[in-house]
């Protein structure tokens, strides 16, 4: 069998690499190739793919090669070395080159090779290519010139010519001398040798920088440089190289080796030998510094080394040059690295080459703005005959010489047009000489010959004349031209050959004499086709736009030649000299014509001049706000917010400005109001918009306000003249329906009402004396309402407060609070009486030491005090300073022996008897002397009288007693009765008894005389010291025992207590010294020291100081702050802190609350606008204002219409206006025969001002129908100006005195995707910006912004745009269902067909299914829909699929036959459209491989984000985003496109809602508003609230969630915080807009809320209860928790005696038991009442009351005492909290008879459906439940007690604001 073929695989294929081992820059320079060998050992031919890579070294090489079977192929890769990489190398480096062989995209084998990369100017050594050394020989180096100069000097010395001419006319000796001179010059440079040289290894061949300046080189570097110098001298150098040796030589005659490199040393030796002398060499070693060999000696050295075989090869530089080895560029350092200087750039010996002269004309260097505008208006599409001339409807003329044709046309005035050329028509062919001569001959005769026959020529000429005349009539522009010369070019768009005229001559054509032929005459100078010039620049970058200006100085032939020269390189292009008569126009031709031919008439306009580069004059743009203006100043026939009003008011001043109108902000209604005011002011207005839809919207609004008849809309250039005439005639026929009255009066009334609403608001927010407004003060008070209200602040302090001092006070209070907090609080602080204000380490140490000493001395003192008290058997309670001093006094006197006279030499018992006898004597004597003057002596009668009294005998029966009684009578101070005499006798006897006792004591001697009689004076003097001692002791000691003290004093006479007393005295002195030191060190206030227990006080303080010494610095700072507080009059702050009334946490709050309260108490009553405000009057005024404003708007419309009608001219009028009226009538009757609308408008300008003061046009129709006259209108208004170029708008701008440019710079620019927005980079300063809007902004034109967004009926629909692109500046209205977004992401599991259809089929299908579902649903189909796709391909796919489905389901009528039909558009063309529901198809996403490309079509382009902004702001009610792409799949690190970033953010927003957006912008109110406090109160009642609801500047202060549906809000509460909005905005626009959005709205005035927050909250709560149905549910709790009251029926008619008689006690007890069992629980008082009622007893009294109480007690009922009252019951269930009893008529129980148990049950039941109730609400509710039509304070007090009882039970909670809630 035959052997089978080998298959292609790894085993049958191989690859090899061949390239130099060493690679340097010379490999790139000399284009060294790289070779790849491929072997195919298989049995079949195969196409292989080869790739070679080498990192930075190589430019990747890839090639495919067909290799026959069992063969090999070698591929050559040229130009693969990277010059950048090789030129930057500075050291040796290894690089790997890899070659890969693949088959069918599958790698088979690979091979690699490591090469050494050489630094720049390095040679690889002898193992490499020696030929490359020639590249390092650079004869043009400046150093070579220097060497040659020096060598020339040597030659001079040798009497030789110093010039070097190489081999010219020189013999070998002369050449040798030249080489010797170079040698000598080099040796004279003293170049040092830079080490030994090994030429076998890679090394530097050229020293970087200047070798002569560096003075250092290796042998090779010096040899190469020497060769460079020899070559510079014109010689042929040769390099000799060996292992470590180098020599340099030169041919002595003009010759070279056969090979660039030779290793034949023999031939070299032969050529150097004497007799032959073809070469001379010298040894390089002799050139280095220190070498002493002259040239001849060096030659000998070289020859010896040569003979010794030291040199291995010889490089002939001249031969290398012949082989193409030129000098390598010289590398030099530059600011950015290295740069290479080629050989021709190294010398300036040659003069610079002359500048080339071209017969070409380049672009125009400076282009004026109007020229740029012209070009912008040019139509560069192939629909334009100026770019795609077909010759249809035109006449081809004979022409061989265009110059001659124009010359004869101008010379003769006109040429006669004839047909029937005898020459065959040929286009773009050179005419023969004979034909040219014939053409010239006819021209000289005045004949212009056409190639067509005579009939065709005449017919075509007639058509041309008619078209030119119609254009002139309708537009004022002539379009007939003579085209001379044509350009043939190949279109880049479709690769088709097209023709375009080059030179255009405006001509006129009319019947010639005899009316047979047509005469052609010139109608202006010739010019070059500007459209073509611009097209060539933009499409082909051929810039000959210099021909676009005045070319009259050039001949036409020169122009054609110049164009031909410029297009010469273009294949298939040519220029012909053909001539045609044709009409040329295009869509924007008329605008172009305005600028081209009428610019002088237009450029006088101020804005146009500014656009041309002049400075825009500054305009006064300040207008009063809406609230400051009279309603008549600016009329508002359509409702307008304050931002719209500002724009309307500014327009009336005649100022030009830009009006920013983001989506849905009411641009059209603002424009309508501007127009209405302008025409009312008798101004002419031009409203311009490109889209007819925009004109229609404004026209519809103008019709709506009654002035539409005075506004003429002309959008199309096909406008029917008859229709315009009919409209004008209808306007002329209008008549006033009646006189408008009361307009001014209503305006005045409206202004007064507005002032009534404005004044309180201004007063509320006016800054007052403390820098506070009343509103801010209210917020300040409410914020701190829970702070303690205990600061005792004098009114003088408030009077002295200013804004500055208040700020200082706050700062100081904060500082004090912070310092106090750092100290751990100042109330009962360890530093409480420390007065230090400055801190240092020294202060700390002194305080610490003083406290330690104090503790030590206290301990010492207490020890002695303890001994002191123990020794004297006494106790002491608190150790006050006074007691310490008393003890000091006692100790000092006792130790000093002051009392020795009493206690010495006597026993304890004896002294005590003496002491007590004196005490009793003192007491008795004191009593006695109150009644008697002297002590009566008894003498010897004493024993008898005493005995009588002891036995209680009758004093009158005893003589001694009777005598004593008589004496007493005489001594008495008052008469004595016999009954009192016994007690006085007893007193006298006692007195003498005590004296007798004293007489016996030895201590009494000092006050008894010798007769034994007591001397009272001496006694008093003697006992004074003793009494003082005991008095002091009694005041000092606790439970003082004088006997014990006396006993110790007697015993102490022995002296044993003296050490204790003296120790105490010393300890006390030491303590007081420590105290003084401590107080002084701590700067304490002695008056603040607690005196109760002074030792414990100081011990505690000192100990605490030591324990907290680390906080002393903070305390000092606090005390220092206190000083400052005191200086500001804020000492009450520190007092409150230190007293504990306030803490550091609430001190500022307390202060601010007091300040705010005082401020408000003064400010509100003093301001009439605030004090008269109430909720009722406010709402009434608002409603009146709203109603009157609506009436005034209607009246405004009638007023404007009436004024406009009154200005219409009467048919019988006179003057110029009547002449215009006659002219109009004449033209109207002829139906403008022979004239156009342009002629009509020109002929009756003043009449037109009266009939149609406003014209609505597109830029094209404005140019078509309006004369190019500056200031033709007073005002021009542009809508959607962001989509209009300046070139389009400038004609309209010029026609008006002022301009209002309306648009949104954040929406689409004029350019469309896929159409390049060409920018002339050579004239950037004259380039327009993207739109007229941008240009006007760039001029610094004043700006106004519309900020209220009305389109979106759900805030989420505009939230993304507002946040992302408008910075949150749009004011939008939240929706009641704002918690849920109306932007939804519909995730589709689709695939983006990126490489082919560029469609996401599944996404399109999902979207279409949703559209069909909605169209089929009767409810959903009422919503209009629009589909927006992100690409044109997806739009087409959706449109096809949708059309098919709609047709199949027969939904055409539902989808399209409606006011807003279904549309499908892409990003580019959706601006201006809006629908209820917008469905997006993102389209882009992962492809079939799962890869996501970040190319999102138009979004990636500059300004792509604006396309996204337009698209996402089209929906009114809902937005659905169908997307396969997820936000997470967009990696913003890989793109910088703002549009892509926006798409990612939008997808996140659609998926997650508003949480993905950045933090919402700050509210127009700063800080917490009133709403926060209202929300807190409502939350307490169980209503869930949100504050500051809204995603824009406008916020709903409080939005209350519907308790029945927590996804929707039920109420919006608007407060009167400070805003930028006008009175109308706040009171009408905001409220009405919210109500239209299904909100319930309430307004709360802050002054009312401050004055009575409970009333305002109740008002809100009542409204909420009505809204939520809670009011209807109020009765439910009654039914659920109440039960009827069961009462015992009355039986009998008894009297009180029935109760008190005692006979009926049993029956009464039984009745009591029945009452308790039936009416339990029941109070004692009500039980008695009910008992009497059942018996019919009406009169009662105390006896009845007492008897009933006794009987009740005897019954021993179960009872519970609550609130001081006994309640009786039978079953335990009766006193449990549960249900309560209610009565029907008659009502038995009084106000306080309902038991506390039932009252608490009633309250609990009432709160079951509520979160809380204010107490007064609860009172009314309880009274109603208990059927109390009126109630007294007793009931209120009792109910309050019951609430307290409920709190005790843990059932109720009562807040500080008197709100009751369940615990």
Task: Write structural notes for this entry.
Helices cover 44% and strands 15% of the residues. With 1863 residues, it is an alpha/beta fold. The strands form 13 sheets. Strands 20, 21, 22, 23, 24, 25, 26 and 27 form an eight-stranded mixed sheet that branches. Helix 10 crosses helix 46, helix 27 packs antiparallel against helix 35 (1058-1082) and helix 29 (908-928) packs across helix 34. It is extended.
Number of helices: 65
Tell me the overall shape: extended
| Beta-strand content | 5-15%
Compute the number of strand runs. 51
Supply Rg.
Answer: 60 Å
**Backbone structural class:** alpha/beta
As a percent range, the share of helical residues equals: 40-55%
Instruction: Let me know the average pLDDT.
Output: 82
Q: Biggest β-sheet: count, sense, barrel?
A: 8 strands, mixed
The termini sit apart by 106 Å
Oligomer: single chain
Low-confidence stretches: 355-360, 362-366, 1312-1326, 1559-1566
Topology at a glance:
Layout (H helix, E strand, L loop, with lengths): L12 E6 L3 E2 L1 H5 L4 E7 L5 E8 L7 E7 L3 E7 L5 H5 L5 E11 L2 E12 L4 E2 L18 H16 L14 H16 L4 E2 L9 E2 L6 H4 L1 E2 L1 H14 L4 E6 L3 E6 L9 E2 L2 H8 L6 E5 L11 H13 L3 E6 H6 L7 E5 L2 E5 L27 H9 L17 E3 L4 H11 L2 E4 L14 H12 L2 E3 L4 H22 L4 E11 L6 E15 L6 E5 L4 E2 L1 H11 L15 H12 L6 E10 L5 H14 L3 H6 L30 H11 L4 E4 L6 H14 L4 E4 L3 H13 L6 E4 L6 H12 L10 H23 L8 H10 L11 H6 L2 H20 L18 H31 L9 H15 L4 H4 L4 H21 L13 H9 L8 H13 L9 H20 L15 H21 L5 H10 L6 H25 L11 H14 L4 H16 L3 H9 L7 H20 L1 H4 L3 H32 L9 H14 L7 H7 L1 H7 L2 E4 L1 H7 L7 E6 L7 H9 L1 E8 L28 H7 ...
Helix pairs in contact: 3-4, 3-6, 10-16, 10-46, 16-46, 18-19, 19-20, 22-41, 23-39, 25-37, 25-39, 26-35, 26-36, 27-33, 27-35, 29-32, 29-34, 30-32, 37-38, 45-46, 49-50, 52-53, 58-63, 60-61, 60-62, 63-64, 63-65
